[in-house]
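Tutorial, part two.
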Amino acid sequence: MSADDATTVTPALSLYREIDRGEWSRLAAGVTQPLSETEIVQLRGLGDRLDMAEVTQVYLPLSRLLSLYAERTKSLGADTSSFLTEPDSTTPFVVGVAGSVAVGKSTIARLLRELMSRWPGTPRVELVTTDGFLYSNAELERRGLMDRKGFPESYDRRALVNFLTAVKSGSAEARAPFYSHMRYDIVPDAHITVRRPDVVIVEGLNVLQPPPTPNDVAVSDLFDFSIYVDADTSHIAQWFVNRFLALKNGAFANPNSFFNVFAHLSDDEAAETALGYWNAINLPNLEENVLPTKHRATLVLQKAVDHTVERVLLRKL
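Running the prediction step on this input gives:
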């Protein structure tokens, strides 16, 4: 093994606790599941095999851990203000959720929002996706980036940093742009407004990216806790194809959908089209930009081929 190899391998072994599914699920013992089957189905994304067992054994303990982090951070903020003889100015606890397209991070973010809001210390939880910080399609066309949508350069990184800076500065109100998946574009003059909740969850592909230059602020610098949703690349590719097929027979059939042009495809044609997009856009983005940020996360959820979490890596304090 070369010195470079040793540098790469050793931190991953020493920085994280590695907890298998069985050990992690035992943390839910005696904890009441607050969500009903109907609520879980409503939260589930296309292709996600989320059920009561998965929520109870994996995400209920995770939500409790996050709530504890948020409560302790708030307490530390209050103690710091007291030490400085200032009024308490504790700001929202910010959680980042990163991972590939089709890995299930959006479902996880929605689920954590619901679960965390059921814990007494974090009753107000807001969710913001970085899709809203994509440049508009018109701007992407102008910059020649339409085929790079989802890559780091397709986002208004400065606007996202400014939004999170407002959140972490304790602003009474912070506004994020709204993105329509139906229109596949930003909706002009539509916003998501965040008014100093207990927790803000920020979900997106590139939220763990390092800053473009050493003098810039990284989005992740404004997180209190971060999660990376991980899986074998071949599994994610199949999930992407499966989701595309499900959308073809569902949302794509809507004449108002940007993707209505795919509604007429046969399943074989749709699968081939999906693989084309995966290999040309999503896989390169994953390998070049998303996957290399995994080591920056506080916690890594490792998924099996059936979308269930089989292992949790938690960074040591």
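The chain has nine helices and nine strands. In part three we will examine how such features are distributed along the chain.
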